[in-house]
Amino acid sequence: MSNISEEARKAAAEKTAADYEAPEGVKDRRSAAEVRKDIERVREEMAASVNELANRLDPTVFADNAKAAAFDKVEAARARAQSLAQNAAAGDMRAVVLVAGAVLGVVALIARKLFR
Fold first, then answer.
1. Which residue stretches of the chain are H helix?
2. How many domains, the chain?
3. What range does the domain containing 68 cover?
């Protein structure tokens, strides 16, 4: 892990370019030490921004996020199908019709594949 401070990470996430611009018409009265300190702070904030961008653009992070999203969709579909099957078993006519339609659709796809 990097040695970038949590404060720099937070500032990098919240600040915009305008936050770093000097006000027009105002003389800078900071000492050389204060300027160096500000430069170091901005450097840390920029490093935190670059690290965050690198993490967001990392192909393994993209793949992991896509995998997690696909898993969530499959789980949601499984839960809906399970609920529909339970409703059909309980005698809900709408659910019975939907299950029957799904079964007929699968049978039609299999028959089409077999007789092609």
1. 6-14, 32-57, 59-89, 93-114
2. 1
3. 29-115
